[in-house]
Here is the input.
Amino acid sequence: MTQHIIYREKDIANIHQFDVYTQNGGYDGYKKALSIKPSEVIDEVKASGLRGRGGAGFPTGVKWSFIPQNEPIKYVAVNADESEPGTFKDRQIMENNPHQLIEGALICAYAIQATAVYIYLRGEFWDLGHELDKQIDDAYKAGLIGKNVSGTGWDIDVYTHLGAGAYICGEESALLNSLEGKLGQPRVRPPFPAQKGGGLYGEPTVVNNVETLAAVPFIMREGAAAYKVIGTEKSPGTKIFCLSGNVTKPGNYELPLGTTFRELIYEHAGGIADGKQIKAILPSGASGPIVPATDQVLDTPLTYEDMDKIGTVLGSASIIILDETVDIVWAASKMVKFFKHESCGKCTPCREGTYWLDKVVDRILAGQGKAADVDLINNVAKNMAGTTLCALGDFAANPILATIRHFPDDFKKHVDVVQVEESKPAVKAPARAGGAAQGRAGRASATSPTSSGD
Amino acid sequence: MLAEKYAERIQRTLSKYPDKRSAVMPMLYIAQEEYGWVSPEGINEVAVICEMDPTQVKSIAGFYTMYSEQPKGKYWLQVCTDLPCALRGADEFHKALKAELNVQEGGTTADGMFTIEHVMCLAACDKAPMLQCNFHFHESLDMDKMKTLIEQWRSEAAQTK
Here is the structure.
């Protein structure tokens, strides 16, 4: 790819500076938007086919069009909570090309005639959040934010808000609760955030991911047609692929949607580290189903529709590579521990399920499990999927359901050991699960003395 | 008292939101900055500022990992050991760091300098092993680099004594 749409710092030095950004077409998309009707902005974004980059892939323009026109107070909430294991793309946008996010958020705000934008950053982006405040000030000083922007009669404010370490706050309704000073737990829907009663402070709200909004200035400046020629028909544009794990050159790669795993891993990222063979791919962090790295999988284009065909999801494209030496049960255990810690504790299947999965997977990993334990975790995971208020319940089931489906032998190796050793009386009984008091679920009631769970 | 000492910052923060409760998270950061942790007096003061019940403030403090509900060392080291980092040696790094400072998981060194704990993904997977120290990232680490950092922090602390 010759030119970057999002990571423009790769083509233009110092684009994080306001002056450099504006000298290179920065805020031109916003100015163009301000010169046309809000509904025309929405139509343009709809026509581009841009889909949400936070994970769900929902068409962005359609999301904006759900906002009722006649409500006096409306909000844009930018999801900069980037917390999925394997995701580090939004951070790079905000570090190196922050004005493009601010511009995208402003275009969205104008399109829905919002009264304020809140950028919700994960608390760990502490330094970044304070830098972003300065960039926002630059845009205020230039008259791009504030009262009666460009004589349109429209007022807008932009604020940052730092979270404090909770994966669940990347879930849109939990994010809104957290912004309101409540526990970051998902809400019952409907009403959805776009509806009266469902958004921030009960007002209609668009919640968009950083990468999604950072794509919007190009669409407004160059037009939807210019965006649509990149990528595939159903998945237009570029996507940032966050590559981590056992690759030679981990990092963020902005490439057209439709690039294959093979091109990404072997042409761009230098292949598997230390000359090893690839074993498996997690295309969407810990939350998307794992796939074995077969030739068919490696040649699959990275699009929303093609990931579906191989039984997984594109999600936020946080691609974790596992080489031949990785024990999939160990990897599953790592992911289960993550979800156990990050379950907000609101829904029973997720709160209790993650706890039990962790206990039993640890038992299997320690060589103390039985073949029936594999069936047990499969059964627990099945009962979590689809039974919770938010998608975290499904996400937390995937590390078990998909690993057992694709790598049964890795599990068998651990339980086989047990069957040989079972005649020995000295095998210690696994510790009894004592309730989910160690993770966030316990801390939600402020009863746990620990600050980092397990 | 936070309300007097941080009056300007508190006012500026409150002005961002249509209600006071929304400022509870930034206020807890201020309390932590002042007292070194979210102490009972900090919780009570935040409750007054945000017009909330102290119990509600306490539940917010308990929900998030970046609020410390007990005193920590001067340098609070949080090592990411999640899957992407672990694939690049984070578990071994975390273990070696604890051995270097002779401290258990979640514990603080005898001189009160360092608290070490592992945390969930910090969005720096391509630069593992990594950690955050008092909310600032340190990336692409190994034990040699870590020893240099520890020395730096020690001399920094000696100077500010």
